Amino acid sequence: MRGLTFDGALRYRDDLPVPEPAPGEVRVKVTVAGVCATDLAITAGYMGFHGILGHEFVGRVDTGADGIATGQRVVGEINAACGHCPTCRAGRPRHCPQRTVLGILGRGGAFAEYLTLPADNLLAVPESVSDQMAVFVEPLAAAFRIPEQLSLQGNERVYVLGDGRLGLLCAQVLHLSGCRVTLFGRHPQKCAVAAGWGIATTAADLAAGAERADVVVDCTGRPEGLQLSASLTRPCGTVVLKTTSAHPPEWNPAPLVVDEITVVGSRCGPFAPALAALAGGRIDVAPLVAASYPLEEGTAAFAAARAPGALKVLLIP
Ligand SMILES: [Zn+2]
Ligand SMILES: [Zn+2]
User: Fold this and answer.
1) Both 102 and 84 in a single domain?
2) In a domain, 276, yes or no
3) Which residue intervals of the chain are DSSP H helices?
């Protein structure tokens, strides 16, 4: 089959084996996949992953299983857990130490004609959600992880740093939760998109003078994001760290101690509320699509996704 692999270099190949589903797994024919900052970070050495990249997808079930019919349109939770270790039994399967992660850890990904995942990971996509919307469920679920982790009252002052793809989704989800959200961005056209959703926006270089917030969400994708976030968080407030970077920050975290700031690492989130929000029209992803490329032009797609200010680049197998 055709696919995009990383083995120290990003390559398009047409000689990849079609993956065989293991017991309990389903093979999915990918319809649309999305390029994410994590994919770009992997090509810079993050996670040390070699194989087929990609974890944001919508597709159709190719080999059915119990409870899921062939041809069903699906999205899929990307962490494949063992299901029986103490972590899984404690209800934290996304942290299973034996897990594989689609296109990130020990499992070929979505930038290919076919992928495999456990049947339990798949969610049926309702008719009202188009493929171009459904491909956003995975990053949107990561944004829905924030209200799952924080007990928000709904009136907090929240800053979202970074107007990239994830920053725009986090700002929308927190705005939906009733928080007083300000998005700090570097790109006027992307801040304008957020303003169109009724979200306050400010130029990133004005952050230094801003009043400190209850919660600051770092979606900068930069190693210095944590330091900036801490400086904008009120004493006893919370920093939510969404950035994963291949490069460590050079920063003395003493301000976290002095101001007693809680740092919450935040990765993958729940698919069901993300899919429901798209189906209910409560979250708008249409302005986030920058361009679509065929799989054969994967290298050009990555270059486009890497361009400063780029929104979501889609790959069509
Ligand atoms: Zn992603
Ligand atoms: Zn487990």
Assistant:
1) yes
2) no
3) 37-42, 86-89, 131-134, 137-149, 165-176, 188-196, 225-231, 254-258, 271-279, 298-306
Tell me, yes or no, whether 187 lies in a domain.
yes
User: How many domains does one find in the chain?
Assistant: 2
Nearest ligand for residue 268 CA: 1
Taking the centre of ligand 2 as the mean of its atom positions, its distance from the CA of residue 84, in whole angstroms, is 5
* Ligand 2 mean position, distance from CA 97 (Å): 6
Of all ligands present, the nearest one to the C-alpha of 143 is 1
How remote is the CA of residue 94 from the centroid of ligand 2, in Å? Answer: 8
Give the CATH number, domain containing residue 9.
Answer: 3.90.180.10
Full residue range of the structural domain in which residue 99 is found: 3-136+285-316
Cα–Cα distance between 95 and 93 in angstroms, integer?
Answer: 5
Based on the fold, state whether residues 99 and 169 are members of the same structural domain.
no
Output DSSP code: residue 226. Answer: H
pLDDT tens by residue, the chain, 317 residues: 999 999 999 999 999 999 999 999 999 999 999 999 889 989 988 888 999 999 999 999 998 777 789 999 999 999 999 999 999 999 999 999 999 999 999 999 999 999 999 999 999 999 999 999 999 999 999 999 999 999 999 999 999 999 999 999 999 999 999 999 999 999 999 999 999 999 999 998 888 788 999 999 999 988 899 999 999 999 999 999 998 877 788 889 999 999 999 999 999 999 999 999 999 999 999 999 999 999 999 999 999 999 988 899 999 99
In the structure, ligand 1 is a single-atom ion and the residues with CB under 5 Å from it are 36, 38
For tokens 């889609």, name the residue. 314
Q: Are residues 126 and 17 in the same domain?
A: yes
Amino acid, res. 40: L
Report how far ligand 2's centroid is from the alpha carbon of 282 (Å): 34
